[in-house]
Amino acid sequence: MKTLEHIPLNGELPSPKGVALAILELCRKDDATIAEVARIAQTDPALASRLIRQANSAAHGGGRPVASVTEAIMRLGMGTVRNLALGFSLVDQYQNGPCGQFDYQGFWSHSLLMGLAMQKFSNMTGAGASEELFACGLLAQVGRLSLATVYPVEYGRLLDGQDGVARNLVALEQEHLQTDHNELTAALLGEWGIPGALIEPIYHHEEPEHSGFSTGSRPYQLVHLFYLARRVADLGLAGENERNACTAELLLLGGRIGLDAEQLGATVDDLVQQWRTWGELLRVPASALPSFAHMSAAHAMRDEKSDGAAALRVLLVDDDPTTRCMMEGVLSGALGHAVVCANNGREALALAVETQPQIVVTDWMMPGMDGLDLARALRATEWGQTMYLIMLTGHENEDEVSEAFEAGVDDFLVKPVNVRTLRARLRAARHYVQLLEAWERDRAQLKQFAAELAISNRRLAHAAMTDLLTNLPNRRSGMNALAKAWAASSRFEQPLSVMMLDIDHFKRINDSHGHAVGDTVLRDVAQAIQQSARKDDSMCRMGGEEFLVICPNTDLKAAVQAAERLRRMVERLRIQAGETEIQTSVSIGVATREVGMTETDALVNAADRALYRAKQAGRNRSCVVVQGQMRCFP
Ligand SMILES: Nc1nc2c(ncn2[C@@H]2O[C@H](COP(=O)(O)OP(=O)(O)OP(=O)(O)O)[C@@H](O)[C@H]2O)c(=O)[nH]1
To answer: How far are the Cα atoms of 221, 345, 387, 394, 417 from residue 323, in angstroms, in the given order?
Structure first.
């Protein structure tokens, strides 16, 4: 880490003045006494009252309230008093400055909340002396103030261009100013005598995952606490629309130090209270915020609205209560999904049957049934095929990841889960679920279309082969039936007969009673043909008032009997058409397939000739022509 001499600077850095500077210098001496520090501090009434207030703060623990600066210094310790004096002095001196684009008041407002949060969280976790960490939180971004002081014009230009992402700002600072605010913060804190054990975590606090501190070590714990404190401060200054992203992330971060959604909410609400009180004392702005619970709930509602989709059903599976609690807080509290939780794979399987979740987020290592077995078990069921499975893993190992994908997992997340990543992955999952549901809807619709099409095709086919007036098969259909009967008769060497039937003097009926009555007569005669026909017979309307009856496996004698039965039946018909009762008759030509007939037309023509003879013979007759000889019945 660089010291101030290694950083190219061409202006005056922020530095404490007056009483604070004197305390700082005094504390550099090994033999400095509390009495000496107290004597100097008392000369600045504002500093004295702030020190007493800090010594009496809830964070410092119970006991009799202190009333004097000496007691305050005894309670706080000289190191902490020195840091507090430094911080308060800078706040007082740098309420405004030469850089037009730098928000000095906003900077101190943010720093104050960060300091308070650092004090609170360190107290809750036992990470270190909370007052000392208050001052460290307060000064954790002092490098930014320094850049605004040393390079007011260049830094202002740079702030204009940056998009608010800390990492981008660091890169821009390095590019244009050959240093960055974290580097400068660390160098200044070193200059002011803050211990290196605190400077290191402060230097890395914007990107704790890149700090390289070993998991569980004190610097690791501190760097994450600084990050958490910073995100609380970001929430304090965030606009209404940005608060949502902050609350979601805070829920996750809070989970890591064992705070559930309710506890975190209470902590943040309390911090905001303290921030407002201290804000008045230090004359920095600290605005009132809605309660944390309200901000999280508003987020859930907005998330749903902006995504235009309802909450998803999520099954969360983890045997670790802390992870489960924090993930549930984010999934349900911040992202607004309907979450059910299970302790292990077996419990999850039972819950999955019951709740049919759209998304399953499962830990890998669990007693009993682990995440992989759960994925396999779900994929083995029909209903589990379409669920979106997200696996939580401790680390990203290529073999393990491919094993997870083979077991049917759709995506994986490396723990500790970052809220931005979780949100992005859930967006992908939601997209998948929506596509799937749209596909299911389309499939159901297509099924319905196909069924309707089949019905309509059947109707069309029926219409194409049916005579619409009589509902009998039409000529085309009749010719198909005759071809089949002809083929069967050839195959089984069976006789085949046909009758050609024509209504007598039908024109007269039309002429005397009108076409509508003629139609009724056609329908009734068609019905009579159907009724008199045998099971294997088929018939059709050839056109006009002419019908064909096909009689498979029927010889001439049987065909003539059938024709006579039909003729008599029509003769007996009394057709009612309105007021009019019509009596009619038919002439029938009968023919049987004979040796030498090579095609169906020959048989139809023979029946046609016989019909002609029947008409000639006086109508209402059945006639048959066999080898040139005609016989008529009756
Ligand atoms: N109402 C009605 N009449 C039809 C239909 N199709 C044909 N016709 C009539 O049927 C009549 C057939 O008359 P013709 O072929 O002269 O024979 P006919 O009067 O039955 O006399 P014969 O066959 O010699 O006994 C014509 O007047 C056609 O207009 C129909 O669908 N409805």
So the answer is: 17, 16, 22, 12, 9
